[in-house]
Amino acid sequence: MTDHENKGILIVDDEPQVCSMLARILEKEGYSCKTSNSAKEALDLLAEGDFALLLLDIQMPEMSGLELQKKVRRKCPDIAVVMVSGVNDRNVVFEVLRNGAYGYVIKPIEQMEVVINVKNALRRRTLEIENREYQVELERLVFERTQELQKAYKDLQSSQEQIIQQEKMAAVGQLAAGVAHEINNPIGYVSSNLNALARYSTRLIDFLQAQRELCASFNDSGSECMVATRKLQKEKKIDFLSEDLTDIVRESQEGVERIKNIVQGLKNFSRKDQDQPLAADINECLETTLNVIWNELKYKTTVVKDYGQLPTTKCYPQQLSQVFMNLLVNAAQAIETKGEITITTRHRGDAISVAITDTGSGIAADKIQKIFEPFFTTKPVGQGTGLGLSIVREILDKHNGTIDIASEPGKGSCFTVTVPVMA
Fold first, then answer.
1. How far apart are CA 405 and CA 84, in angstroms?
2. What are the CA-CA distances from residue 400 to residues 66, 368, 403, 417, 418 (Å)?
3. What count of other Cβ atoms lies within 10 Å of the Cβ of residue 152?
4. pLDDT tens digit sequence for 369-389
5. What is the 3-state composition of the chain as percent helix, strand, coil, each rounded to the nearest 5?
6. In 9, 71, 138, 393, which residue has its Cα 20 to 30 A from 178's Cα atom?
């Protein structure tokens, strides 16, 4: 017998002789039996002992076997119940079985019938307990596996974010030389202008000091003073200084503003996105991206901007800037010597579209379906990771957006990004 079957049997019948006979039959089969002649005593024994099966007479004086069966079912659901009765009524049998009995023995008692009913009941009880234990264990394993999968999913999400951030920083690294050049140009003329401004300021100060001294040396402040002042003004080139000083200050202010825009664009581009989407202007995202990558574009492309009036939309601005940067750099790299990139933005219905069109080499039809696959690249070895467009698609999936391609070898390509307007 299994552990679930290796427990006692409680025999309940108001006739002591029947209890004794049933006990002898079952003890011969190796079962440990206890007997009771009343429902109350049976309940007390069930509360104290550990029984696997209850062999129960239906008709008893204080409490019927059916009532006792229901109580046992509520209090001790793991105990198998086999009913014993002299009533051979199909309706009674059906009610007994419907209430959860595992078997039904009809008096006069046949030894083999009792043994078969008890063995079947205990075996069924064992299977039900094992099945329940298996379900509990299965639920535990499913829970643990679900926890592992959730952790793996979070780790995967984290890895994907890291890959996007690494790709972004790699792009920033590739652009660093160009950005430095872009910054050096305005710094150069700001520095030159400031040096000129310092010289001019010295001249102006000298002129004003000399003018005061001249005027003080003449008793008559008339013509002689004026002639000397004009002569000094001409020597110090005050008229030229006055005109050039205005231009120098204006150019310096423009240079500083340009540096500010480049640095801010680089900071915005390299910054990691927030967990929650932010309201942003797609046109501004494009301008930020152009500021960062301008050195990659300006030598061989003319950028035509055809911006439409766009509503702000909730999105991840840095990630969309990454999308635009990848597409614009790819467009520039597709142009061999000199060409044009056109950026068109439109608001149609509940969506915003951004079309980036180039006059480059185009993409062969058999490669268009592969370009979004990770590590696929049409560039020479060492010039591309093959992750740029796969990251583009991943970012657009996060925005519930799409990307469409129209390309003709030798004429160029058009990538159209569409994202929904989110209030």
1. 81
2. 63, 21, 11, 11, 9
3. 10
4. 778 776 666 655 445 555 668
5. 60, 15, 25
6. 393
CA distance 139 to 417: 45
Q: Of all residues in the chain, what percent carry a pLDDT higher than 90?
A: 26
Q: How many CA atoms lie within 13 A of 337 on its CB side?
A: 0
Reduced to 3 states (helix: H, G, I; strand: E, B; else coil), residue 365 is helix
Closest C-alpha among 308, 325, 272 to residue 421? 308
Q: Is 202 exposed, middle or buried, given 0-12, 13-18 or 19+ CB atoms closer than 10 A? A: exposed
pLDDT tens sequence across 353-368: 999 999 998 888 888 8
What are the beta bridge partners of residue 415? 356, 405
Distance CA 99, CA 258 (A): 87
* pLDDT of 77: 85
Q: Which one, of 387, 386, 393, lies nearest residue 417 by Cα?
A: 393
Residue 351 parent element (H or E): strand 351-358
User: pLDDT of 309-331, one tens digit each?
Assistant: 999 999 988 889 889 988 998 89
- Judge contact between 411 and 362, C-beta under 8 A: yes
Residues 84/55, Cβ–Cβ less than 8 Å: yes
Token code pair at residue 280: 């942003």
Look at strands 313-315 and 278-280 and give their pairing.
antiparallel
